[in-house]
Amino acid sequence: MGAVLAAVLGASLMGCSSTGGKRAEERAAKEAAEGRSAVNTPRWTFAMVTHSGDGDTFWDIVQKGAEQAALKDNINFLYSHSDEGQQQAELVQTAIDKKVDGLIVSLAKPDSMKAVVAKAVAAGIPVITVNSGSAESKSFGALTHIGQDESIAGEAVGDELDDRGRKKALCVLHEQGNVGHEQRCAGAKKTFDGTMQNLYVDGTNMPDVQASIEAKLDSDRSIDAVVTLGAPFAAAAVKAKKTAGSKAEIDTFDLNASVATGLADKSLGFAVDQQPYLQGYEAVDLLWLHRYNRNVLGGGLAVLTGPQIITADDADELAEYTDRGTR
Amino acid sequence: MTATGRTAPETDERLVRTSPLRKLLGRPELGSIVGAVAVFLFFAIVADSFLQSSSFGTVLYAASTIGIMAAPVALLMIGGEFDLSAGVMVTSAALISSMFSYQMTANVWVGVFVSLLVTLGFGAFNGFMLTRTKLPSFIITLGTFLMLTGLNLGFTKLISGTVSTKAIGDMEGFESARKVFASYLTIGGVEFKVTILWWVALVAVCTWILLRTRFGNWIFAVGGEAGAARAVGVPVIRTKIGLYLGVAFAAWVSGQHLLFSYDVVQSGEGVGNELTYIIAAVIGGCLITGGYGSAIGSAVGAIIFGMTSKGIVYAEWNPDWFKFFLGAMLLLATLLNAWVRKRAEATK
Q1: B319: nearest CB among A79, A109, A114
Q2: Number of domains forming the structure of chain B
Q3: Measured between CB atoms, does B58 come within 8 Å of chain A?
Q4: SUPFAM superfamilies attached here (chain A) (predicted)?
Q5: Beta bridge partners of B192
């Protein structure tokens, strides 16, 4: 045991790399932290409560954006999440109990959040909604909504599929119960001239996702496009396509490092980005602006962060940002 | 259990009066109460907003939503069985009343009672299958769990076209049903949800059944040793089916709360909650092997769970570590529980 430990330590000491690696990352982080806040407002506390599950790539990027803005705006930023409506509502309640100075919530399950958001508004806490809930945001009393209109994003996908001459597409839903996901597929179906089918998979079980897509591609050879609703599922779809020996093009919502690589090497057709970093960053920054200067953005309408269609042409310049986890 | 020199040799050891203190030390929930006090003090120190009066209402509400289910689940575990379908059954109960009322354009209360009947049917199915097939309850209820998960989504999409039910907030009877299942009282500026009353009532009823009725004795008997219980005339089958009906009833109550709080139900929810109920019962002193435990203990377990899950947020800890803290708390509480019980038994 001791010998193994010594060997590992020895190896890591001898084999130092002067470029890259964890140390470079730490140095960069330290330099960023020393930047400190750019404002002289008091240290307000903003809470963000989302419907994210545990360890979600997308929400990690949102959080990074929010933290960057919090650093700049001298904000004490609190993040919590639950994928169950009731739990998420309870988390918002705890934020109200804490008397936070601003609240950011996602409304994937609007009915669960209605009462508690109203309570926050009644308690005088400014609320901004992000990601899901553009339709409900205003009536719930939120200042503004920052996100992507899921129907519009879906329609953009339908148009793009038409441009690429696709005839039969598959829309892969990985989260049963997410209304936004249904809207994406419905939007794509609306503008797409070919036929589109929905396929439900269990997003928490990657091998199952791959097997389900594979089975579908096997059974229906005429499918020439697969649209996944989350970046990690695109990789599973690519694998499924290879095993099934299908010619279908894989397209996806959202972006991450492997999607950027996939776009560059043409294993993926296009990605629809909703710029999660912007959703976190802008939410915190707009709350700060509201507290500081009573500014509100959007003029009563949602502030859209997407859809942005990304193809092989854009992939190269984005690779740097997806690598550091901000795109 | 040896009678020490304290007892007079001619009296039967079973007739000896034990002192109230000793009785208290022998209770299954004692360890969990010590644990609850420890968790409370811990968060009182590390989280400033934990002691605010409004936080009190929030923590109690979180505890009540778990506790309503944990009480009958504890009884079931004392009876030696599990119910893995308890979590999704809550969602099923909510979906049934919502969709029945909407589709039939009936008074909401009609849906609520139809839901009660169907949910009790699920419980009876669990109990009947278990006693008929003699398979472990783990397998039987795992099957029910998966089937209900599928039925919830399948029926909801078939009937409503989407994954959530249609809003029934404007229907007749909704307001009165909301009063019963999802209203709140404001006492001294603090909001107390009505689920807390349901919880207290359920725990009281479960405790009464367990300690004061013949059915309660049967529960301990079938959980301790079903074969021996049957031999002395305990109706094992009836007892076990009764226990599953109890869980189904609580699932119905929780389901109605879910529906009338938000007036729309998401079909995919509830998965994983069954473990939370079992955890609360185990923290509260239920043995996983059956034959030992208490309903009050399950309530204390639910309070520990509520304090921990909300305390971590009040303490502003990074939520990435949330599950770790929860697991550590669970282990510590259970260890403390076991230790206290051992000490209590040693002093007998």
Answers
A1: A79
A2: 1
A3: yes
A4: Periplasmic binding protein-like I
A5: B185
CATH code matching the domain that covers A150-273, chosen among 3.40.50.2300, 3.30.1490.20, 3.90.1200.10, 3.40.980.10: 3.40.50.2300
- B90 CA: distance to closest CA in chain A (Å): 13
Distance CA B88, CA B318 (A): 29
Task: Spell out the SS3 assignment of A131-180.
Answer: ECCCCCCCCCCCCEEEECCHHHHHHHHHHHHHHCCCCEEEEEECCCCCHH
Determine contact: A27 vs chain B, CB below 8 A: no
A271 conformational bin, left if phi > 0, alpha if psi -120 to 50, beta if neither: beta
Q: What is the pLDDT of residues A134-153, one digit of tens each?
A: 888 999 999 999 998 888 99
Chain A residue numbers touching B267 (CB-CB < 8 A):
176-177
* Least confident residue range of B98-102, B118-122, B189-193, B247-251: B189-193
ipTM comes to 0.70
Structural domain includes residue B185 = yes
Scanning B66-105 for CB atoms below 8 A from A yields none
User: pLDDT by residue (tens digit) across A4-17?
Assistant: 655 665 555 555 56
Domain with CATH 3.40.50.2300 in chain A: 41-148+275-296, 150-273
Picking from A61, A131, A60, A51, the residue whose alpha carbon sits closest to that of residue A92 is: A51
Question: Which residue is closest to B156 within chain A, CA to CA?
Answer: A177
Q: Beta strand pairing status for A127-131 and A102-106?
A: parallel
pTM beyond 0.95, yes or no? no
The answer to the question of residue B20 being in a domain is no
Q: Does residue B8 sit within a domain? A: no
Tell me, rounded to whole angstroms, the distance of Cα B269 from its chain centroid: 17
Q: Give A268 or A14, the one with higher predicted confidence.
A: A268
Which residues span the domain enclosing B226?
52-346
Contacts of B261 in chain A (CB under 8 A): 86, 112, 115
Q: Is B53 on the interface with A (CB under 8 A)?
A: no
B116 shares contact with chain A (CB less than 8 Å): no
- Fold adopted by A41-148+275-296: Rossmann fold (3.40.50)
For residue B6, which amino acid is it? R
CA dist., res. A59 & res. B185, Å (int): 36
B18 in a structural domain: no
- What's the pLDDT tens digit per position in B239-258? 999 999 999 999 999 999 99
